[in-house]
Specification:
Layout (H helix, E strand, L loop, with lengths): L7 E5 L5 H9 L4 E5 L4 H4 L5 H10 L3 E3 L18 E7 L9 H15 L3 E11 L21 H6 L3 E8 L26 E7 L9 E7 L2 E7 L19 H14 L4 E3 L7 E3 H7 L9 E3 L3 E3 L11 H4 L4 E2 L14 E2 L11 E3 L4 H16 L7 H6 L11 E9 L11 E12 L4 H13 L5 E5 L2 E6 L3 E10 L5 E9 H8 L13 H5 L21 E9 L5 H11 L4 E11 L6 E9 L8 H18 L3 E2 L1
Parallel strand pairs: 1-2, 1-4, 2-3, 4-5, 10-17
Antiparallel strand pairs: 5-7, 6-7, 8-9, 8-14, 9-13, 11-16, 12-15, 12-16, 17-18, 18-22, 19-20, 20-21, 21-22, 23-25, 23-26, 24-25
Length: about 625
Amino acid sequence: MDVPPARSILLVGEGNFSFSSSVCQLEAESSITATCLQHQEEALRQEGAAINIQTIQDSGGCVLFGVDCTKLGECVSLQGRVFDRVVFNFPHCGRKSGVKKNRELLKNFFLSCIQVLAEDGEVHVSLCNGQGGTPADKPRREWHNSWQVAAMAAEAHLILSAVCPFENENYPSYKCTGYRSQDKGFHVEKALLHIFSRSFPYIPVQITHMEEVVEGENVHYNIPAELSDYVFRRFLSPDSVHPVKLVQDFFLKELLAHWSVSMATASAPFLIAAKQLHSCCHGVDNSQCYWIHLLQRDLTCPAERKDPNIQEASSASKAACNKENRMKSLWPACSSDVHPEVESGLYALRPTLLPQLNEFLAGKEAQLQGGRDVRSEGEKNKNDEGCNGAISSFFGISGVVFRNIAISLWALPAFHQLLLRGVFPSDTEPIKLLRSRLEKLLSPYRVSVATEERSLQLTVEPLGLVGEVFQSSVADSCHVTITVSLNLDLLAVLLFSLPDWRLLWSHEPRFIRQFSHGPPPGTPFCPFSLHPEPFSFDISFWTGPSWEEKKFYAAIREASLGTVEQVQLMDTFSHPDLSQTSYCYRLTYHSHTHALSHTQALMFHKHLELLLSSRLQVTIR
């Protein structure tokens, strides 16, 4: 692996300074500072040390003695300095120290070196084969018997960015010493160089106040805290190069080769009335909705009464982040114990875009009936005319939708949905034609397209359902309505080989940078955080008769900042005399986007316990 030149390099834990001497010769333009733990007299006793030190100094480098690599911030000679690269070759506590002591050495080194590391700097640690405890080690030791280098670095908020062979041949004058505190070398054959960089900081959850026009009424509400990072991300904006936008463009381009497609250009409100949702939503489970209690509703706002066209109805949607003085929260932001048929004036965060698509189509139909054909010439030429002049083209809408679901590997509480609908002559067998197109497009990605009654199910393991196509009849017997629904997030995971859907919502610049040039689907994603370690903790508590599991999942997402990827129910017990039930869950914390250490995961877990006690009134066992 080619390591880019650095402007300033700090080398710690040097023995005979032969590696620092080699670096001086290889990277003549860099500023070298070489340090060792021993005092000068002891260091000079090592074979070749005097010559190597002279070489470093003659090259303009600096040599420091008595520097403890676990206390770099206390070194007077390093005060006020930062380095682009900090190097620690073959760290070892000395003598016959075990893995626990060497793990502690690594952890303390990482915590120390970030005090002198430039913001975009790197930490290089070389280890013998097997010590690191990552899949790059061949053979790989059992994790508990390794130095757990990635987990130790995470304690200092560092992520493992790259692992490559330690190329000893590039440093011809390097003589490795210090094995068990002797003038004896480590086994550098198959040794590995681990490169670390700073992790993007965690973003705390926040209450997002919203003001939107829904069915002609101006309403105010809060986005649930665990969903605050899923709104206003603009992944589908015209100038976006985000993977979900690239996947949408990929599908629309394929459809445009055979049909015309007209997409709604304006955003739609996040909030939807329950009666509208109940009347038109195919395949939406009410139990998976985020039901919202309004903070305030203006019953009369005639100036904001809108045409049914979605492009006008949604133009008043906006965030109202400074309205605390006008609103008082009377209810929790979200509830799951409601029934849409008995609660009047109930609202939900949109679980699908079908109602908005219906409004968009109603607006298009009204324009056509009014004598205005708003289609482009290309659309008119592609449209097939059947009986009653039905138009054979797709109209579509896309945006974020929300599902109140349990936490598991491929369960997305928010994702981007692409919805398309068109009316086609029955004799053209549109569902059969669509199946052929989709199979051709997705078969390289192992997507199965199965026919079920009058629909198509697009599935792939282990992600599950990634899309569906369903057919419905119209009053005109010679035409059918075709609706296509695609989960753009899961398709982006699939088409770009992402290890985790949560990467799509990362604020990490290294993620979006990989897509800045618009790579075609099929281009594999290169992880910027390698081999992150998962951590599991159990939580047990007593609940009362008002226990709601969905509020438990909401608290987990909020307290863990989305780092919990799996929740398993391990055990339940109902007390025979008390109206209480004990639950035991196992939570797995794992992050491909941030440095997640055991300490950080435990902090999240402790915060969850406090949140459950205060919000859900459970008794932690």
